[in-house]
């Protein structure tokens, strides 16, 4: 039995998990940019951002470090999701281990949608569909294949 639909959906999911990779790489690139730091300082010190009763704003350097840590976490999570998608596609190719591939895809979809803070929700949705199709699809009986 061919598993073309599942493989195509898995590849589409891998491409869609490239979106969190793109977003996190942009965050990591802007982390070390002094111009971004200056713009943030100007924005945080503007009169519109000053509120009555507010003691102090968080340090800009702390915000930028947090942004970098967040970007690295999302990058690693998205790359792991892409790697598990490649593994699942290899399991599906040639109909080697479709049940294992389906389970991997479903678990990856759930965990890494949350791990990428819903930036990878589209990739997760496609992985989930591919995993369900891989598990539900029944192989044809050999007698039915001969009569077709």
Automatic annotation (TrEMBL):
Keyword Cytoplasm: no
Swiss-Prot/TrEMBL keywords: Membrane, Transmembrane, Transmembrane helix
Transmembrane segments: 7-28, 70-91, 103-136
Residues annotated as domain DUF4064: 2-114
Top-level taxonomic group: Bacteria
High-level lineage: Bacteria, Bacillati, Bacillota, Bacilli, Bacillales
Protein name: ABC-type phosphate transport system, permease component
Pfam families cross-referenced by the UniProt entry: DUF4064
Transmembrane helix recorded as keyword: yes
């Amino acid at each position: 039995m061919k598993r073309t639909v599942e493989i195509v959906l898995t590849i589409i999911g891998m491409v869609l998990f490239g979106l969190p990779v793109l977003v996190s790489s942009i965050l990591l690139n802007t982390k070390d940019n002094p111009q971004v730091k200056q713009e943030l300082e100007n924005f945080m010190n503007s009169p519109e951002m000053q509120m009555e009763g507010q003691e102090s704003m968080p340090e800009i350097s702390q915000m930028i470090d947090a942004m970098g840590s967040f970007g690295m976490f999302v990058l690693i999570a998205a790359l792991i999701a892409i790697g598990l998608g490649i593994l699942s596609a290899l399991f599906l190719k040639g109909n080697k281990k479709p049940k294992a591939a389906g389970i991997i895809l479903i678990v990856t979809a759930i965990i890494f949608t949350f791990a990428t803070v819903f930036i990878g929700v589209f990739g997760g949705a496609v992985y989930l569909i591919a995993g369900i199709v891989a598990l539900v699809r029944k192989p044809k009986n050999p007698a039915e294949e001969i009569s077709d």
